[in-house]
Write a structure and sequence with these properties.
Order of helices and strands: EHEEEEHEHEEE
Number of strands: 9
Bound molecules: cobalt (II) ion
Shape: globular
Number of domains: 1
Structural class: alpha+beta
Distance between the termini: 13 Å
CATH architecture: Roll
CATH superfamily: 2,3-Dihydroxybiphenyl 1,2-Dioxygenase, domain 1
CATH class: Alpha Beta
């Protein structure tokens, strides 16, 4: 049902330092920061040969990652994203299996302009999971 790992999202409390770490220290292909006001984050896409890393930095007053950074001031893995072919079919299967889908269960358009859903971390080994329809 789930497909490729689309990205691993890492919350950072210092965006410039996060960019420098991946670009200069790790030698990765780091894109320009993009503000995503609908999602309350600034995102930096980092292209790796087999997947992506996304640095997340809070944007605006009610950023969904503000609480995470309060608990993890040095940053940390915020979520991982798996690709799916049919997000509605996967959602219905997961809900029937007892998993909780966040935000009312209706897909939203994510940072890649594709439908996404988030699954409750308590149902998935303490990991916030994003599903993206590709
Ligand atoms: Co994501």
């Amino acid at each position: 049902m789930i497909g490729r790992l689309n990205h691993v999202a890492i919350a950072v409390s210092d965006l410039d330092a996060g960019i420098a770490l991946y670009r200069d220290t790790l030698g990765a292909n780091v894109g320009a920061p993009q503000d995503e006001p609908d999602h309350g984050v600034t995102v930096v896409f980092i292209e790796l040969p087999n997947t992506k890393i996304e640095l997340l930095y809070p944007l605006g007053e009610n950023s969904p990652i503000a609480g995470f950074l309060e608990k993890n001031p040095s940053g940390g893995i915020h979520h991982i994203c798996y690709e799916v072919d049919d997000i509605i079919a996967v959602r219905d299967h997961l809900v029937a299996s007892g998993a909780r889908v966040l935000g009312g269960g209706e897909p939203k358009i994510g940072a890649h302009k594709k439908p996404v859903l988030f699954l409750h971390p308590k149902d998935f080994n303490g990991t916030l999971i994003e599903l993206e329809q590709v």
